[in-house]
């Protein structure tokens, strides 16, 4: 970079699952380590696509985005475009053949190579392609730029040893690789030291954690060890697999106070025949049995799920079995998907692919059922006192209603107002209120006066203050040059004014 020139800007565009969101935090961290800064405008000097191969048409969408950037790049010759993630791992050189204006292509196993590939592409004026077949460095050892100061993601494993026939993950992310517990706990401690009060343990199949180093109870031990980390208030994890969900995990959840009463348990189908065709090794009875055991030990647990509608060969009877399990499961939320062929997966080759109209009609019935259940379950929350971890506010809704938002311990979304005379919380602070209204996808708490509202300042709120001050170039509290008593106020963004 020439002297005195402004630093190059970057933008990471993320598609797909939480694993990708977390990988994108690493890409941002790597680019910032290399001296780039986040772009504040639409156009950045470096644009990275972190792609997903799970959805049909994911490739068409990517090439559409890349096509839009072609004329932009022609006008801005210094601009660089990189493509990473699952689709890059799968399509490799095809990306460079179809979009030769791309500068770098990297896979899911070598996220850490991104800055070097961009630099090499710039220096050599050629496109760089680097895909590894397996992981060389565990991605969590790479620098990360977290999206949130109050919560963080921690990878405990990557890859998956299962072979679900609809899933591309095993071929793109490889066999399960587990991090050692000491390394995971050290990363959690570092996040907590940095102000986080919530962590989510992340893996394609978290409860098989330990398979690589031969400890079947490693996941429950890890949850219990999280309970010993001082200052860590909320521990979550995603995603477990019903087949390997053992009683020791339920016991650890119930007996570790900072493990939250929330569980994401992917059902996929309620039909045993479809589960068999999906190569999911549990059956509906086992699935429902897990939910019973969880609710017996953790009565207020909010359970969410993933369901695929219209898997090849799914009959009306099979679909009815899914509706029956959904009715019995009383999910707080369900992520519902219409089956679509994913090239490279065994299910894409199966006979009995269903017409779109049939899938759509079943999907709508499932949504209607789940929306009713979600509304009924949320209605039971009215009158309950909940503690909310206040989120960074965004979106129009909060501007219009003047309510702030956050998540209850069970991960339910709560919009709440701050009564007259009460202190407005910072993102990362904790607020205790009583639920006054319910809708299928959120809850509302409008305390009548300050006596119905409690705010707890948290270390995460302090970290938010510091991050805001630092991002404005203002020294934060506790750093040299702080104005006594006022150090963190300058440059603070205004939170929406609460209803008075
Ligand atoms: S458990 Fe199945 S769906 Fe989940 S990542 Fe592994 S193969 Fe894919």
Automatic annotation (TrEMBL):
<dbReference type="Pfam" id="PF04055">
    <property type="entry name" value="Radical_SAM"/>
</dbReference>
<feature type="binding site">
    <location>
        <position position="167"/>
    </location>
    <ligand>
        <name>[4Fe-4S] cluster 2</name>
    </ligand>
</feature>
<feature type="domain" description="MTTase N-terminal">
    <location>
        <begin position="8"/>
        <end position="123"/>
    </location>
</feature>
<keyword id="KW-0963">Cytoplasm</keyword>
<dbReference type="InterPro" id="IPR013848">
    <property type="entry name" value="Methylthiotransferase_N"/>
</dbReference>
<protein>
    <recommendedName>
        <fullName>tRNA-2-methylthio-N(6)-dimethylallyladenosine synthase</fullName>
        <ecNumber>2.8.4.3</ecNumber>
    </recommendedName>
</protein>
<feature type="binding site">
    <location>
        <position position="17"/>
    </location>
    <ligand>
        <name>[4Fe-4S] cluster 1</name>
    </ligand>
</feature>
<dbReference type="InterPro" id="IPR058240">
    <property type="entry name" value="rSAM_sf"/>
</dbReference>
<keyword id="KW-0949">S-adenosyl-L-methionine</keyword>
<feature type="compositionally biased region" description="Basic and acidic residues">
    <location>
        <begin position="456"/>
        <end position="468"/>
    </location>
</feature>
<keyword id="KW-0808">Transferase</keyword>
<feature type="binding site">
    <location>
        <position position="164"/>
    </location>
    <ligand>
        <name>[4Fe-4S] cluster 2</name>
    </ligand>
</feature>
<keyword id="KW-0408">Iron</keyword>
<dbReference type="InterPro" id="IPR023404">
    <property type="entry name" value="rSAM_horseshoe"/>
</dbReference>
<dbReference type="InterPro" id="IPR006638">
    <property type="entry name" value="Elp3/MiaA/NifB-like_rSAM"/>
</dbReference>
<dbReference type="InterPro" id="IPR020612">
    <property type="entry name" value="Methylthiotransferase_CS"/>
</dbReference>
<dbReference type="GO" id="GO:0035597">
    <property type="term" value="F:tRNA-2-methylthio-N(6)-dimethylallyladenosine(37) synthase activity"/>
</dbReference>
<dbReference type="GO" id="GO:0051539">
    <property type="term" value="F:4 iron, 4 sulfur cluster binding"/>
</dbReference>
<dbReference type="InterPro" id="IPR005839">
    <property type="entry name" value="Methylthiotransferase"/>
</dbReference>
<dbReference type="InterPro" id="IPR038135">
    <property type="entry name" value="Methylthiotransferase_N_sf"/>
</dbReference>
<feature type="binding site">
    <location>
        <position position="160"/>
    </location>
    <ligand>
        <name>[4Fe-4S] cluster 2</name>
    </ligand>
</feature>
<feature type="region of interest" description="Disordered">
    <location>
        <begin position="456"/>
        <end position="500"/>
    </location>
</feature>
<dbReference type="InterPro" id="IPR007197">
    <property type="entry name" value="rSAM"/>
</dbReference>
<keyword id="KW-0004">4Fe-4S</keyword>
<comment type="function">
    <text>Catalyzes the methylthiolation of N6-(dimethylallyl)adenosine (i(6)A), leading to the formation of 2-methylthio-N6-(dimethylallyl)adenosine (ms(2)i(6)A) at position 37 in tRNAs that read codons beginning with uridine.</text>
</comment>
<feature type="domain" description="Radical SAM core">
    <location>
        <begin position="146"/>
        <end position="376"/>
    </location>
</feature>
<feature type="domain" description="TRAM">
    <location>
        <begin position="379"/>
        <end position="449"/>
    </location>
</feature>
<comment type="subunit">
    <text>Monomer.</text>
</comment>
<dbReference type="GO" id="GO:0005829">
    <property type="term" value="C:cytosol"/>
</dbReference>
<dbReference type="GO" id="GO:0046872">
    <property type="term" value="F:metal ion binding"/>
</dbReference>
<keyword id="KW-0411">Iron-sulfur</keyword>
<feature type="binding site">
    <location>
        <position position="52"/>
    </location>
    <ligand>
        <name>[4Fe-4S] cluster 1</name>
    </ligand>
</feature>
<dbReference type="InterPro" id="IPR006463">
    <property type="entry name" value="MiaB_methiolase"/>
</dbReference>
<comment type="similarity">
    <text>Belongs to the methylthiotransferase family. MiaB subfamily.</text>
</comment>
<feature type="binding site">
    <location>
        <position position="86"/>
    </location>
    <ligand>
        <name>[4Fe-4S] cluster 1</name>
    </ligand>
</feature>
<keyword id="KW-0479">Metal-binding</keyword>
<dbReference type="InterPro" id="IPR002792">
    <property type="entry name" value="TRAM_dom"/>
</dbReference>
<keyword id="KW-0819">tRNA processing</keyword>
<dbReference type="Pfam" id="PF00919">
    <property type="entry name" value="UPF0004"/>
</dbReference>
């Amino acid at each position: 970079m020439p002297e005195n020139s402004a630093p190059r800007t970057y933008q990471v565009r993320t598609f797909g699952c939480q694993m990708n969101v977390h990988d994108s935090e690493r890409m941002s961290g790597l680019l910032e380590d290399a001296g780039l800064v986040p772009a504040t405008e639409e156009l950045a000097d470096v644009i990275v696509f972190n792609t997903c191969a799970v959805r049909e048409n994911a490739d068409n969408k990517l090439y559409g985005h890349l096509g839009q950037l072609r004329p932009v790049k022609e006008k801005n010759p210094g601009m660089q475009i990189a493509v990473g993630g699952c689709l890059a791992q799968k399509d490799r050189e095809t990306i460079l053949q179809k979009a030769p204006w791309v500068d770098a292509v990297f896979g899911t196993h070598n996220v850490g190579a991104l800055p070097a590939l961009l630099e090499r592409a710039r220096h050599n004026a050629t496109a760089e392609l680097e895909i590894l077949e397996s992981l060389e460095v565990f991605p969590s050892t790479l620098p990360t730029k977290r999206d949130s100061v109050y919560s963080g993601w921690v990878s405990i494993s990557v890859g998956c040893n299962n072979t679900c026939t609809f899933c591309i993950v095993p071929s793109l992310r490889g066999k399960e690789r587990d991090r050692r517990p000491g390394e995971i706990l050290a990363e959690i401690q570092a996040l907590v030291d940095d102000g986080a009060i919530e962590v989510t343990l992340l893996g394609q199949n978290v409860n098989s954690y330990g398979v690589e180093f031969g400890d079947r109870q490693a996941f429950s031990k890890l949850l219990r060890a999280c309970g010993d980390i001082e200052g860590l208030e909320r521990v979550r994890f995603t995603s477990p697999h019903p087949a390997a969900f053992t009683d020791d995990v339920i016991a650890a959840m119930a007996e570790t106070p900072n493990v939250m009463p929330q569980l994401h348990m992917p059902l996929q189908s309620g039909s045993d025949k479809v589960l068999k065709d999906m190569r999911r090794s549990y059956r509906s009875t086992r699935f429902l049995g897990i939910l019973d055991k969880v609710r017996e030990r953790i009565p207020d647990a909010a359970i969410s799920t993933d369901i695929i509608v219209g898997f090849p060969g799914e009959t009306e009877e099979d679909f009815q079995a899914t509706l029956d399990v959904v009715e019995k499961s009383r999910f707080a939320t369900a992520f519902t998907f219409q089956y679509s062929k994913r090239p490279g997966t065994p299910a894409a080759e199966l006979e009995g692919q269903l017409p779109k109209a049939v899938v759509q009609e079943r999907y709508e019935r499932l949504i209607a059922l789940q929306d009713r259940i979600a509304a009924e379950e949320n209605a039971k929350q009215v009158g309950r006192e909940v503690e909310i971890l206040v989120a960074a506010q965004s979106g129009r809704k909060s501007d219009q209603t003047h309510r702030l938002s956050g998540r209850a311990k069970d991960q339910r979304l709560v919009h709440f107002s701050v009564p007259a005379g009460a202190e407005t919380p910072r993102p990362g602070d904790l607020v205790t209120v009583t639920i006054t209204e319910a809708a299928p996808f959120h809850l509302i708490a409008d305390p009548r006066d300050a006596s119905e509202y409690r705010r707890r300042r948290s270390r995460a709120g302090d970290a938010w203050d510091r991050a805001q001050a630092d991002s404005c170039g203002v020294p934060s509290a506790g750093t040299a040059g702080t104005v006594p008593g006022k150090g963190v106020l300058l440059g603070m963004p205004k939170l929406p004014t609460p209803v008075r």
